């Protein structure tokens, strides 16, 4: 990898910030471990369960209770999910790698063979998930090639015990305290 080209910033142009190579950006940020969640809902048009895998999930506020996650602008699942009345964020367990892979795939029956039940808000809670969080979309913010979704929490609870599914340096693993 060569030396990045830098550009001048600031009012006087004295400070230089190196240009960011996208692959280098991914490699460096991949050193930050993240949990993995599945965002699920019932499609209001078809009545079928829908979902997608997300590793950019975080709590935002206690009052009001808010969470956020990021979705690629190119996602074909997100428009169907956000049309639903309630979303459910499922905190995936370390044994749910196949669930993550299925929900991250494009097209097909993502819920075929998956066991789930409805949350109190009416969205799918995946069997084996560590926790579930019912929420409604509060705001969406465009952010580069993604959309930051801020969602208002309407209900939540722990579900199963175990360790979380963790994403680190391009691979999945677990964490056992």
Write structural notes for this entry.
The chain has 177 residues and is mainly beta. Helix content is 12%, strand content 45%. The chain has three helices and 14 strands. It has helices spanning 22-29, 78-82, 97-104, and strands at 6-9, 15-18, 34-35, 37-42, 49-54, 57-61, 66-72, 87-91, 116-118, 124-126, 131-143, 146-158, 165-168, 171-174. The strands form four sheets. It has a seven-stranded antiparallel sheet. A hairpin with a 5-residue loop joins strand 9 (116-118) and strand 10 (124-126). It is globular and about 55 Å long. The mean pLDDT is 89. Keywords: Oxidoreductase. This is Flavin reductase family protein. Residues 29-174 form the Flavin reductase like domain. InterPro entries: Flavin_Rdtase-like_dom, NADH-dep_flavin_reductase, Split_barrel_FMN-bd.
What gyration radius follows from the Cα positions, in whole Å?
18 Å
Distance between the termini: 37 Å
Structural class: mainly beta
Strand content: 35-45%
Indicate the percent of residues in helices: 10-25%
Low-confidence stretches: none
Query: What is the H/E order?
Result: EEHEEEEEHEHEEEEEE
What about the largest sheet?
A: 7 strands, antiparallel
- Count of DSSP helices? 3
Organism: Microbispora bryophytorum subsp. camponoti
InterPro entries: Flavin_Rdtase-like_dom (IPR002563), NADH-dep_flavin_reductase (IPR050268), Split_barrel_FMN-bd (IPR012349)
Pfam families: Flavin_Reduct
Protein name: Flavin reductase family protein
């Amino acid at each position: 990898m060569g030396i990045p080209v830098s550009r001048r910033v600031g009012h006087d142009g004295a400070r230089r910030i190196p240009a960011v190579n996208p692959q280098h950006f991914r490699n460096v940020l991949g050193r930050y471990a993240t949990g993995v969640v599945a965002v699920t809902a019932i499609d209001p048009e078809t009545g079928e369960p829908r979902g997608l895998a997300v590793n950019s999930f975080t709590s935002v506020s206690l009052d009001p209770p808010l969470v956020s996650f990021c979705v690629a602008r190119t996602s074909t699942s997100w428009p169907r999910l956000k049309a639903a009345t309630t979303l459910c964020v499922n905190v995936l367990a370390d044994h749910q790698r196949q669930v993550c892979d299925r929900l991250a795939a494009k097209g097909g029956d993502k819920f075929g063979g998956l066991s789930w039940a409805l949350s109190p808000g009416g969205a799918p809670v995946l069997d084996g998930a560590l926790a579930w969080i019912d929420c409604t979309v509060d705001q969406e913010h465009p952010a580069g090639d993604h959309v930051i979704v801020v969602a208002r929490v309407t209900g939540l609870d722990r579900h199963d015990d175990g360790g979380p599914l963790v994403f680190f340096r391009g691979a999945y693993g677990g964490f056992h305290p």
